Amino acid sequence: SVPLTFFGGIGGASRHGILIKGSNYMEALANASTVVFDKTGTLTQGVFKVAVVHSSGLTDDELLHLAAHVEANSTHPIATALREAHAIDDCGCSVSDVQEIAGEGVVARVGGRSIAVGNARLMKRMGTTPQACHEAGGTIIHVAIDGAYAGHVHIEDIVKPDSPQAIEDLHATGVRKTVMLTGDREDVARQVASELKIDEHHANLLPQDKVASVEALLGARSKGEALAFVGDGINDAPVLARADIGIAMGAMGSDAAIEAADVVLMDDKPSKIAVAIRIARRTLAIAR
Ligand code: ADP
Ligand code: MG
């Protein structure tokens, strides 16, 4: 039977905007020793601004036009940024055969040509090589037209103002290891991890690689310790389900994430994880 104090703990957490889906997660939260984060939308705002456009042959406007149309129906934050950089106008060009490849990007036919918009991995799949200048920071989204390299767009995401405190608080509560997983480039991952003082980071991961990373970390934890994964649900619902405690962002997160998660942070603030751990420990102490 579930001690009544557990309901008190769940109620207390909800007043902080932390939705805990069952009393069984109280114990896991209290014993969290490893906290694993997705980057985009979780530790960063996931609100990208287009910084620079480099195109070969096309004008910058033409490149952005193609990118925005290919991304017309994607819910990825990068797609939103590209649509904000160039409105979906009624250019009369037909968009068809849209294929979104998780962790890579989107391919579609626009006005009779095959357009690919995504990372270096996607360019390789299209049989072309990205020619990015790496001086500018941020995420780089490449464009290929009919398998030929056409240019790239630099887009910049920023760390949430709440993220540094979130990591500091976790270490202060005694969480032994913080980890960041991302499908983004190593350069970007290293910069964010060092800014936030995250113990370990892994970049260039596909959704299935994130599951494998979490499984390795699950295997490394000691008896009685729990692993929490925190994500926004875009491409990471399987990882949310695999962790001892799946924590989703409630405001920006996808419905799939909220569904797959055990704990939902209604205001998307990662600092609420340490708050949840402290409430869980207090609740367990009272129950014993
Ligand atoms: P993260 O691990 O940072 O949350 P994702 O796994 O969602 O990121 O995506 C990893 C990478 O795949 C992105 O950094 C981007 O390069 C590429 N990508 C994914 N979806 C898209 C898309 N809709 N358009 C362009 N690029 C994308
Ligand atoms: Mg993500």
From TrEMBL:
What name appears for this protein in its UniProt entry? Cd2+/Zn2+-exporting ATPase
Q: Which family does it belong to?
A: Belongs to the cation transport ATPase (P-type) (TC 3.A.3) family. Type IB subfamily.
Placed within the complete protein, the shown segment runs: 332 to 619 of 666
Q: Where in the cell is it found?
A: Cell membrane
